[in-house]
Write a sequence for this structure.
């Protein structure tokens, strides 16, 4: 399988796309074509998660041997329960897909535990170390760090907005005690941190000199890994076009929704999606109105969704324009120069969008607990707000509620705890606080590499 850039001037194999992360022209790698999975769905029903994942990824990771691929998957999901993504039924036609049972209690573990194994395979095969660089609005950073902790010689540089992520999220990043983990708290928003990462990867010489690779959802391996839990859930629920299932997805950087939507383009029938945003509703507004207009980030109770520049929107544009990279670049230029892009056709009939502000988040946490005795974190609460009566629905639970104890306690009087988070409370926070400037981050990377 070949992977091409959304901006049309680069291509790579699977391994190359994973290690490089960002394309040389600044675009994002996408599969040159999407396979038709429909002939395989019947035989895949009932397969264990790792075996299903190996079958699915074999269509894309064509330069990885079957044995190496299965080994990477087995190690990645060894610490997860069985099944790794349990479906919990709350009512007639209402399920929750729990994606928070990994090492850092967030859905990002599904992709980043596997990405860490791919990186480890590369290090072992080539004998060359890798340094990961990423920006996080909360959960990506800790999941990336923990995916790489066991890979010898690899350093992790994680940017996050100072003071704008939950305390326990920061502790998962900054309390590992590892000398190979470098938390970089920037004075700005997540969008500022993400822009810095993209600028650094745009300097191909600097990235190569420091063996940098990307862990954000700009890395195509992350999107493909997330397709698998949608596939697993769909095989269990058996949706049809005449009886569809709507996956309601807490949405910030648009990678999670994109993964499910891609699966629908691969011939899995009956999939519908809802973009469930918090107050930072730039993606939701696009799917409502066809207008993409990034604004200023509004801090919220769901900090991992406090994003206005959704990276994976570029991938969606590439498919929306049928692979026309010129039109993708024109849309990106319109956003960059005029601050707005307007779609000239129907946006997407299989994606709807909703918004939930902080008051709504508190109300949904309280309602879901009152009606279902289920504790939802603030991000998942945005998805519960979008459930419609009479529609078969799967709410994606993207983080463990114990990561947000203050909000949960305020809404339910319950104090959620988790042993791994409790253990962090007595550890010192070790981080560098930097201005939101490319030069400052480059200097921090260079200082470690000397």
């Amino acid at each position: 399988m070949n992977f091409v850039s959304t901006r049309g001037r680069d291509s790579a194999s699977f391994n190359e796309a994973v290690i490089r992360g960002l394309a040389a022209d600044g675009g994002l790698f996408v599969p040159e074509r999407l396979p038709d999975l429909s002939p395989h769905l019947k035989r895949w029903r009932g397969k264990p998660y790792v075996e299903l994942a190996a079958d699915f990824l074999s269509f894309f990771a064509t330069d990885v041997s079957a044995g190496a691929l299965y080994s990477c998957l087995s190690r990645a999901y060894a610490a997860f329960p069985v099944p790794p993504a349990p479906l919990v039924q709350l009512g007639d036609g209402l399920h929750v897909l729990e994606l928070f049972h990994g090492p850092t209690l967030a859905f990002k573990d599904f992709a980043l535990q596997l990405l860490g194994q791919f990186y480890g395979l590369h290090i072992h095969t080539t004998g060359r170390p890798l340094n990961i660089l990423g920006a996080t609005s909360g959960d990506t950073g800790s999941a990336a760090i923990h995916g790489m902790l066991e890979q010898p010689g690899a350093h992790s540089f994680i940017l996050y907005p100072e003071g704008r992520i939950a305390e326990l999220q920061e502790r998962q990043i900054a309390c590992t005690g590892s000398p190979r983990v470098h938390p970089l708290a920037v004075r700005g928003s997540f969008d500022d941190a993400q822009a810095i990462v993209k600028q650094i990867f745009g300097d191909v010489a600097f990235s190569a000199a420091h063996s940098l690779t990307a862990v954000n959802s700009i890395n195509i391996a992350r999107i493909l890994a997330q397709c698998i839990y949608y596939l697993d859930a769909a095989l269990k629920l058996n949706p049809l076009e005449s009886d569809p299932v709507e996956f309601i997805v807490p949405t910030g950087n648009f990678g999670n929704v994109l993964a499910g939507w891609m699966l629908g383009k691969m011939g899995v029938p009956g999939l519908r999606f809802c973009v469930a945003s918090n107050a930072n509703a730039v993606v939701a507004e696009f799917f409502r109105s066809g207008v993409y207009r990034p604004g200023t980030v509004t801090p919220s109770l769901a900090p991992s969704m406090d994003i206005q520049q959704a990276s994976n929107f570029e991938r969606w544009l590439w498919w929306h324009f049928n692979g026309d990279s010129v039109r993708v670049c024109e849309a990106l230029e319109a956003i960059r120069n005029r601050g707005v892009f307007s779609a000239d056709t129907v946006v997407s009939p299989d994606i709807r969008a909703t918004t939930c502000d902080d008051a709504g988040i508190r109300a949904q946490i309280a309602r879901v607990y009152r009606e279902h005795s289920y504790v939802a974190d603030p991000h998942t609460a945005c998805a519960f707000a979008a459930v419609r009566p009479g529609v078969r629905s799967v709410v994606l639970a993207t983080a463990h509620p114990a990561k947000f104890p203050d909000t949960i306690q305020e809404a339910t009087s319950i104090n959620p705890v988790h042993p791994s988070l409790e253990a962090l409370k007595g550890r010192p926070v070790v981080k560098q606080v930097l201005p939101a400037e490319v030069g400052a981050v480059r200097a921090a990377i260079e200082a470690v590499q000397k």
Remarks:
- The chain has 19 helices and 16 strands.
